[in-house]
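Lecture 7 notes: from sequence to structure.
We start with the chain below.
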Amino acid sequence: MNLLEDCDFPKPGTSVDLAVSGGPDSLGLLVLALDRGLRVTVHHVDHHVRLTSTEDAQFVVEVAERFAVPCLVHDVFFTGVEGNFEARARAARRRVLPAGALTGHTMDDLAETVLLNVMRGGGLEGLSPMVGDATKPLRNVRRRDLHYLVADSGLEPRYDETNDSSAHRRNRVRHELLPIMNDVAERDVVPLLARQARVLFEDRSWLDELARADVDLALGDANCRELVTWPSARLTRWLRVRLATRTEHDETYPPSADEVARALSVVRGEAVACELSGGRRLSRRAQRLTLE
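Predicted C-alpha cells for the same chain:
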C-alpha cells in the first residue's frame, strides 16, 4: 500500500516543519514526509507534565539524528492545574511551533473530531473539520495503516498512557463510542464520517463564497431594517461570526444555537436586548446593534 497517494503534501523539495511527539502518528508523518522528498525540520514540544516527557524529547532527537534532519525541542512549563489542560496544551504548542507546522492527524482523528463537535453543536464548521487544512496532510490516511508503516520502518514509538484515560472525552469517543457505532452500522463508520465532512466542507465553501460580501459588515454598521430582509440562513451565519468568542487559549467558538436565537429576536425587534455568554449584552437602538 502506497500511503503517499492518500497524503496531501507539498511538492518534493519544499521545506516543512513537522510537529513530532514521538508517538506513532507523528513518526508516520516524518517517514512519509521524507519519502515525499520534503526538506524536513522536526519540532518537539516538551510540556514537562508526564514523568517520561524528557525521555520522549530525547527519543525524538535520536530519531531526527537517525534520519539526518534538524530537530528543535521547545520547552513549555505549566503552573497550577486550573482550566482545561488539553486547551492549554494546544495553546502552548501554537505559541512555540512555527506557523504552518504539519501535524500527524489522520482520518480517524477527523472522525473523532466530527463526533466531538456533534456533541457540542458545532454547526457546519464543526462537522467539516481538517478538510482543506494544509497542516493536516494525513487526513485521508487511516491510523492503523500509519502504524503499520512505522512498524515496518523499524521505529518503536513512545507510548503516551494518557491516550487510554477515560478522563479525556476524545478517548471515550475513540475507545467506546466509535466501536458501538461500528457495531450498530455493521461497518467501519470512520470513512463515512470523513466523506460527510468533505461534502459539508464543499457546501460550507460555497456558502462562504455567497457570504463574502457580508464579511466586512461590522455589527455596529448593520441596519436592522436591512438585516430582517435577509434569508434566515444568511442572517444566522453572519451573527455566528459576529458573536463568536475567543478564549484565553486563543481558540474561537461560535455562539450557541440559543444565543443566536436570542440575538435574532433583538435584530427582528422582538426584544430590545439579550444576554450572551461571557457577560456580554447585545442591544438594539435606532435600528443599530451594540455588543457590550
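Points to note: The chain has a mean pLDDT of 92. DSSP finds eleven helices and eight strands in the chain.
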